[in-house]
Amino acid sequence: MLCRYKKSSRCVTFYCQNIIEYFKSRSHKQKLRTAQEQENLEELINEPEDYFLSQEIKNNCSDKLPLVEEQHKLSPVTNEKDLYKFLLAEFIIRNRLAYSIGSSLSIFIQELVKKISIPTLESTSLSRNSVTHIIKDCIGSTLKENIYANLRESPFSISIDQSSDKYGKNYLAICVKFLEKNSIETPVTKLLSIVQMGDSYTGETIFNKVQSEVLIDKDIQRNLMGTSSDQGSNVSSEGVGLAGRLQSEYPYTIHVSDFSHIYNLIFKEGTTVFPKTILDIISDISSHFSRSPQRRAKFDDIQMKLGLDPLQVLKLSETRWLSMKETLERILRLWDPLQVYYGEYEPRGLELFTTKNELFLKVLLTLISKINHYNIRFQATHIYYDEILDLLDESFIVFATLVVKKEHCNFDELYNLKFDYDRLDEIEDILLSEEEFAQEFVENNNLANLYNKIQEEHKKEPLSIARKFIIRILDEMKRRLPFQSPILRDIDVVFFRDFDKSKWKNLANKFTNIISQDQLGEFNNELERFRVRFERRYRDKIGSSFPFTAQWRNLSCDFPLLAKLALSIAVLSHSSVPVERIFSQLKDFKTGKRNRLTAKNIESSLLIYQAYGEDTSSILTKEMFENYKVKYKKEKSLEKEHKENEEISLENLFEKSITIEEENIQEISMSKSESKLKRKGVGELVREREGLKKTKY
Predict the structure, then answer these.
(1) Which of 39, 97, 326, 522 has a CA positioned 20 to 30 A from the CA of residue 495?
(2) How far apart are CA 325 and CA 264, in angstroms?
(3) Is the pLDDT assigned to residue 416 strictly greater than 90?
(4) CA torsion through residues 308, 311, 313, 314, sign
């Protein structure tokens, strides 16, 4: 709670003290003034000093709470539970917290009653600096060190991305994917570091940040398997980017571009074949409503008059990968009420709502849905590379079968085709004609009713554009997706798909951090034994749902090196989506009222939030309290040293001032008036010296 509502920490402390003190004191008769007060809660409520902060606590609190004045009478309530709820609601409103915190705050107070004594609550305060220290130096640092400990024991990969907030700060977020000590069956992906960037975003700068924040010692460096990121040149470039620098420094690492990002780029390239006037329909309708609440209200009225539950057109966002599909889907759902709205309020816009445009948009939605399926699928955190390779092949085949004759739809043959729209005559004999494509596309995607309403001269263009879109998509897939990546194609052997000795050796030669040169002899011996085991036990299970990590854990006794290599493959990252989610969470912590949080404070807050999200029990450990005590002792020691230095400096300053004053007095002439000034100056200095001695001792 503190990491998310740090600014209200003092208020939380004293309000909890106040509420708990009141309800605890109800069990003591000396706190009740009369028997009538025991029976009548309303009279007790009219004495607010019984359950608001004592004067002593109020005096000790520098940030005084806005307490109820004594003359103010609270409205009567029926019982203590009602009073408790009112006090919580009052606290939430006064501190401008989200209403949803009420349940969490109530549970928090109940836990305090169980664990902390009333005298402790009464005598303890929590300043902003203390909260910062606990979050950053005690809890956050311990959680981060725990992740480092895992990275020293387990192979891991890095996903990385950059972003900026609305306050002008640039950040680099780093997540790591690894196998935890207590469970090696499923890899976990966790935030490790938030780094504030300056004005330099070069590959060298990012490389230095990764080394200082992640690769802090040789044990961690040895376990690095690879990185994943978007296709920014400063990260993915094999020359001067982060990927190239890491591979130069650590040759056993690989870099994978985020697949969701790749599919988004493929889709954007495909949309360039659609007429701009069609794409503008989506942006024009979206922006028309997004800028005006009055227009949205008018549209709501029209829908209600038509007997519909009001829905709004969604805002189109260029930065959200799925935004166009969601916005287009909503526009088509509201197509009829939109026509009514534009006819009544925006007659010039009625030209948008033709049957041809509607068919164009439905064709586009069909194609977007097909490619967005893979965009969404690759955003899943826990998928292994056997499934990833299947999805890559599947997406290519799905789009190819839309334009290629069925007898030619095997992957190897399709991949060798050149899907260049300007040279389609070279593969015309295996492609569906435009008429065949139009017929199949309309029937398979439930477009027949709308298609038949369109005039003959307008039917051809939308389907011709769709065919061109698909061919462009296939061309971009071949260019951008790693279908022929040797290392990715070798990986399939660890998933029990086949036994290929050469692929196993390729993996061992690549990941020399996992299988060293000294271990290659034993590795080959294990391969010979595993070949026999595979033929007898696993060949018949190819293609079935097979527990990959659990099986290698069971095999680790007989094949320790093979199991170690296979489980290392499991942590290879395929996406930077976890980092994108971190940036979304960052907005919850760095708000308009907390826009000066440092990167380390943000990092610690996110680490704590991450830990609480995965464990419903307390995350506090002995190490965290030890860190607090160590810092506390250091602060006390520094404070004592500072006081001693202050006293020494004060005495030195006094001695120096005496010397200077005496030198000045000697220069004064010995006239009568000047002599009086001299005596007066010396007297004042003597009195000041005596006063300082008394203060010191």
Answers:
(1) 522
(2) 12
(3) no
(4) negative
> Among the listed ranges 185-194, 227-236, 539-548, which one has the minimum average pLDDT value?
539-548
CA pair distance 331, 623, nearest whole angstrom: 55
Assess whether pLDDT exceeds 70 at residue 633: no
Question: Structure tokens of 329?
Answer: 């889907």
**What distance in Å separates the CA atoms of residue 349 and residue 352, rounded to the nearest whole number?**
6
**Rounded Cα gap, residues 611 and 494, in angstroms:** 31
pLDDT band with cut points at 50, 70 and 90 for residue 39: very low
Cα gap 160→193, rounded to integer Å:
10
156-164 vs 224-229, strand pairing mode: parallel
CB 162 within 8 A of CB 229: no
- The beta strands (E) that lie in 388-486 are given as none
| Closest to 332 in 3D by CA, of 392, 285, 398 | 285
Classify residue 558 by its DSSP letter. Answer: T
DSSP reduced 3-state for 192: strand
3-class DSSP assignment, residue 584: helix
> Is the predicted pLDDT of residue 341 greater than 70, yes or no?
yes
SS3 447: coil
User: For the residues 435-445, what does the mean pLDDT come to?
Assistant: 92
What six digits make up the tokens of 587?
A: 């907005």
**Per-residue model confidence as pLDDT tens digits over 19-33:** 555 555 544 443 444
* Phi and psi torsions of 194, nearest 5°: -115, 120
């680790």: which residue's tokens?
556
- Per-residue pLDDT, averaged over 641-658, amounts to 52
Which of 123, 103, 99 lies closest to 111 in space, CA to CA? 103
Give pLDDT tens digits for 451-510. Answer: 998 888 888 999 999 999 999 999 999 999 999 888 988 998 998 888 999 999 999 999
φ, ψ for residue 254 (rounded to 5)? -125, 160
Pair of tokens at residue 270: 């495909």
Residue 420's φ and ψ, nearest 5 degrees, are -110, 120
pLDDT at 220 (0 to 100): 96
Cα 248 to Cα 14, 217, 255: the distances in Å are 56, 18, 12
pLDDT of residue 327: 95
- Mean pLDDT, rounded, of the chain: 81
Is residue 110 pLDDT above 50, yes or no? Answer: yes
- Structure-token pair, residue 594: 């907390």
Phi, then psi, of 447 in degrees rounded to 5: -115, 5
Residues 529-539 have a mean pLDDT of 87
Q: What are phi and psi of 158, to 5 degrees?
A: -115, 135
Q: Which residue has the tokens 């969490």?
A: 104
Name residue, tokens 């305090």. 112
Tell me how crowded residue 254 is: count the other CB atoms within 10 A of its CB.
Answer: 19
CA separation (Å) from 463 to 328, 431, 449, 543?
Answer: 18, 15, 15, 37
Strand ranges for 434-550 from DSSP E:
none
Alpha carbon 48 to chain centroid distance? 44
Please enumerate in sequence order all residues whose Cβ is within 8 A of that of 691, keeping only pairs 6 or more positions apart, or say none. Answer: none
Q: Would you state the pLDDT for residue 634? A: 60
Check: CB of residue 175 under 8 Å from CB of residue 583.
Answer: no
pLDDT for residue 125: 86
| Planar angle of CA 411, 413, 419, nearest 5 degrees | 95
The size of the chain, in residues, is 697
Establish how many alpha carbons lie within 13 A of residue 485's alpha carbon, considering only the half-sphere containing its beta carbon: 19
Sole residue written with tokens 């387990």: 154
Q: Is 446 left (phi over 0), alpha (psi -120 to 50) or beta?
A: left
Write down the pLDDT at residue 10: 56
